Amino acid sequence: MSAEGHIQIGEVADEVGLSLRTIRYYEEIGLVTPSGRTEGGFRLYLAGDVERLRLVKALKPVGLSLETMAELLDAADQVASRPSGGPGAASSRLDAVLKKAFDRCDELERRLEAARAALGRLSSAVTGSGP
After folding, report:
1. Which of the four pLDDT bands, split at 50, 70 and 90, describes residue 87?
2. 15 and 55: one domain?
């Protein structure tokens, strides 16, 4: 990490576990924006940028579209930047997208439980015993 707290894209990729190509694509579609660039044009990221990439990576398994993730991040940024932190349009948007994400998590949990039950039945049928 440099004296200013910036790290280059390769270090970010290693730290977060995303490819350089993925990080560049996320920049292209507006999910993350480097905080700066070197004189040579290399992307520079701050800790907040890295955390944003971690959040996107963590949300990928939920199955939200990249557009929905962008909306979620944008609304969260707007809520965080409000001086009062009180309710507003951004807060309502954030609540709506969060509800969609939590509903999706609930659905994935139900599917996972059903898959585990099916595997247990299959295992019992094949071996004559449970998992």
Report:
1. low
2. yes
pLDDT for position 1: 45
Number of domains in the chain: 2
pLDDT digits (tens, 9 = 90+) for 4-33: 789 999 999 999 999 999 999 999 999 999
Residue 129 phi, psi dihedral angles, 5° rounding: -140, 170
Instruction: Give the Cβ contact number of residue 99 at 10 Å.
Output: 10
Final residue in a domain of this structure, among 60, 75, 108 = 60
**Domain shared by 54 and 96, yes or no:** no
Quote the pTM value. 0.73
Under 8 Å CB-to-CB from 51, ≥6 apart: which residues?
A: none
**C-beta atoms surrounding 101 within 10 Å:** 17
User: Final residue of a domain: which of 12, 36, 60?
Assistant: 60
Q: Which domain does 24 fall in, by range?
A: 1-60
